[in-house]
Amino acid sequence: MAKKEKIFIFDTTMRDGEQSPGASMSLEEKIQISRVFDELGIDIVEAGFPIASPGDFEAVSAISKVLKKSIPCGLARHSKKDIDRCYEALKHAPRFRIHTFISTSPLHMKHKLNKTPEQVYDSIKEHVTYARNLTDDVEWSCEDGTRTDIDYMCKTVELAINSGAKTINIPDTVGYTVPSEFTKIIETLLNKVPNIDKAILSTHCHNDLGLAVANSLAGVQAGARQIECTINGIGERAGNAALEEVVMAIRTRNDLMPYETGINTKLLSKASKLVSNVTGFPVQYNKAIVGKNAFAHESGIHQDGMLKNRNTYEIMTPESVGVKQTSLVMGKHSGRHAFKDKLISLGYADLTDDVIENAFGKFKILADKKKHIYDEDIIALVDDSLIIDNKSNSIILKSLKVFAGTGEPQKAEMKLEVNGQIKSANETGDGPVDAIFKCIKKLYPHEVNLQLYQVHAVTEGTDAQATVSVRIEENGKTTVGQAADTDTLVASANAYISALNKMIIKREKTAPAMEQILDEKEKVRGI
Ligand code: KIV
Ligand code: ZN
């Protein structure tokens, strides 16, 4: 059988995805995500925009050292300073990609760049050549490509390839195109650009009209061989093409799209949960591939069909994307060894002894409180241990008592360890969560905006653990904290404290020349 053509999967969750309002990820979280992406088989990981801030630079640099198989990539505008910064962040990796871009649509050239088409054209030669002198893996993007004059686009693409770009990315920056139009754009480039055989064409579709996945697949069917996408489809505004959807569409409709990706689809569900946890962006229940209901069959007719033959209503199996049947896993008599084996089977192969020990302690406490412990419970425990038991935490919850109910003002009594000192407070509030958050504020005075407070049950039943997510904002910077506990109020306190601890770290890291850096970041985001 002839070998199928490969479609390269370029993930931009940590760059375009992080540009979603409120979706910020800490360095540790980005490293955790990168490890999963490496295992998942992503070909190229766009790790960030190194010029945007010292934090972005540090993240791209750290990720480029963590990735073993995926190629790390950084984004740079057409500016030598941007490209140098990108190179500095990536240079430790044995192979890396520099992705440089400029707008080519009349609207963007005139109003955003204040440049003529000739100036933009000249800039391509200068900057792609400059990047190519630093690496032989250069990608060039014509921002707002789908609103660019097609003849002008052909000329710029030809020049970018002649200047050394090996990948040419056609962004639908504002999510404006439709599949038939995008097909035509890719076909025209393939037919009219004389040196197009020296580069791979790539799609980068935004989802403003809900067409990002359809447009990406149309691009591939027309001849593109790289798809830029993000886990859960996160990204600017309505997001980017969802990685899990494009990959599973190619796999499921291989009769129409006879290509292969290198993605281990059984890890899609794990990657989706991780990105959702880290960003605090819930995955909608009916989301294709990774939504809670994506494989649930509710109606009697469907259930009857499924029992007779799964193919009646199932076009792909839940197992193929890593959704396991909820399984009863362990009880209070399970030992350390069985717990460790369970963690490995759930994909937690390289946890430190400290994290395992901490999670095991929590598991024992949970087993005393909760009759049935499921895989989801163990996952919540470990994720919680990874986040809460961070050695660099300044604030730790020592104890909490809450008085709630009808008739009386709700009250919280709390003990916190703040920078090694034990402090206590009690506060009343407009509900128990308000009282808890007021206690934290009293013991660790701070001014932040609470942007999100969200509770999810990890499993079914009234004794289920609750996962609480909290997003806070301070001077334009956001952090997300998460915690799980059978007591929703304890989880709420820990989630808020976790977000605060991350904010403290973020403050320390962005302290130098903050104004200038934030200005630069604003500029970068505004392009
Ligand atoms: O949407 C876009 O145009 C981008 C480019 C920087 C590739 O994200
Ligand atoms: Zn984009």
Care to describe what's here?
With 527 residues, this protein is α/β, with parallel strands linked by helices. It has three domains: 8-279, Aldolase class I (TIM Barrel, Alpha-Beta Barrel), CATH 3.20.20.70; 296-386, no CATH class; 389-447 and 483-513, Double Stranded RNA Binding Domain (2-Layer Sandwich), CATH 3.30.160.740. The chain is built from 17 helices and 18 strands. The protein has helices at 27-40, 54-66, 80-90, 106-113, 117-132, 150-162, 179-192, 212-222, 243-252, 268-279, 300-308, 336-345, 353-369, 375-388, 432-443, 488-510, 514-525, and strands spanning 5-6, 8-11, 44-48, 71-77, 97-103, 138-143, 167-172, 200-205, 226-229, 259-260, 328-330, 373-374, 395-403, 410-418, 421-429, 449-457, 466-474, 477-485. It has an eight-stranded parallel β-barrel, surrounded by eight helices. A three-stranded antiparallel β-sheet has the order 13-14-15. The chain has a three-stranded antiparallel β-sheet with strand order 16-17-18. Helix 1 (27-40) links the parallel strand 2 and strand 3. Helix 6 packs across helix 7 and helix 8 crosses helix 9 (243-252). Mean pLDDT is 89; it is low at 512-522. The structure holds 3-methyl-2-oxobutanoic acid and zinc ion. Residues 16, 171, 173, 204, 206, 236 line the site of zinc ion.
